[in-house]
Amino acid sequence: MSVDVSKSSPVVVASPSEPGTPAAIIGLSSFDKLPPMPVAVLLVFDQPIDVPIDTIKNALSRAMVHYQPVAGRLAAGAGGELHIACTGEGVPFVGVSASCSLDEVATASPPLLIKDLSVRYPIEYCRLTGALLLI
Fold first, then answer.
1. Would you tell me how many other CB atoms lie within 10 Å of the CB of residue 87?
2. Which residues pair with 97 in a beta bridge?
3. Alpha helix locations (H) across 5-128?
4. Which residues pair with 13 in a beta bridge?
5. Of the candidates 36, 85, 101, 121, which lies 20 to 30 Å from 48 by C-alpha distance?
6. Opening angle at CA 92, ends 129 and 134, nearest 5
7. How far is the CA of 8 from the CAs of 45, 52, 79, 119, in angstroms?
């Protein structure tokens, strides 16, 4: 069985603008100041979702209304101390889908690997002023 994997180009998912939402600055904890470590997460759904990529993008957009730091950026203050600026710039998002069910993944030829279904962003997305979350 052959499996086709398709990936969209990165698009920025932003939260809907809420009137009166103040811009905030959030200091980093000691843990937040540790060197970053890339993590790949694969979201798997055991029940079908109609239009899954659009559904996830819409849910992410709505969640960012309540979790503003996710849509923010790292910034340096006057003394060089890093903080999160809640700018509302959004989160880069790439949708990936495969032409098989979860049951078929184990028997796919060639076998599907996490790297086939996950996204590695180019270095230009991974800079100090870049997004805090890449999906």
1. 15
2. 6
3. 52-66, 102-105, 114-117
4. 91
5. 121
6. 75
7. 19, 13, 40, 10
